[in-house]
Write a structure and sequence with these properties.
CATH topology: 2,3-Dihydroxybiphenyl 1,2-Dioxygenase, domain 1
InterPro entries: Glyas_Bleomycin-R_OHBP_Dase, MeMalonyl-CoA_epimerase, MMCE/EMCE_epimerase, VOC_core
Radius of gyration: 14 Å
GO molecular function: metal ion binding; methylmalonyl-CoA epimerase activity
Pfam families: Glyoxalase_4 (PF13669)
Family: Belongs to the methylmalonyl-CoA epimerase family.
Strand content: 35-45%
Shape: globular
Number of strands: 8
Strand order of the largest sheet: 2-3-4-1-5-8-7-6
Keywords: Metal-binding
CATH architecture: Roll
Number of helices: 3
Length: 133
């Protein structure tokens, strides 16, 4: 793993939350997009070298909707940049981590993504991210 790629925050209302984070960081989101396969709309903010992703559910059965229903708004995941996501998935499986999607899938911000089950990472949902070339 190279670095923290971003921190994902589950929100109920993306427009309202964008206004809060615009005030917090003193600048607007640099990107908004929808990831239909995951049932989310996202926006991204930069704060120095750090990236924050806000996630709003677009369907009731999406992982974000389920998270908010169970835990409320807040930090949803920490994403790590990796050089070779397939090799990293295999390495982590060999170390005993449970991978939620063993094949990388297209995520937001032009990334291949895979997730580690929080039960194997002290309650933290970990996302692996690799830039799509």
């Amino acid at each position: 793993m190279n670095k923290i790629e971003h921190i994902g925050i589950a929100v109920k209302d993306l427009k309202e939350s964008n206004l809060i984070f615009e005030k917090l960081f003193g600048q607007p989101a640099y990107k908004e997009e929808e990831v239909e396969s995951e049932g989310v709309k996202t926006s991204f903010f930069m704060n120095g070298p750090n990236k924050i992703e806000l996630l709003e559910a677009t369907r009731e059965d999406s992982p974000i909707a389920k998270f908010i229903e169970k835990k409320g708004e807040g930090i949803h995941h920490i994403a790590f940049d990796v050089t070779d996501i397939v090799a990293e998935i295999e390495r982590l499986k060999a170390e005993g981590f449970v991978v939620l999607n063993e094949q990388p899938k297209k995520g937001a911000d032009n990334k291949w993504v895979a997730f580690l089950h929080p039960k194997t990472t002290n309650g933290v949902l970990v996302e692996l991210c690799q830039e799509i070339n």
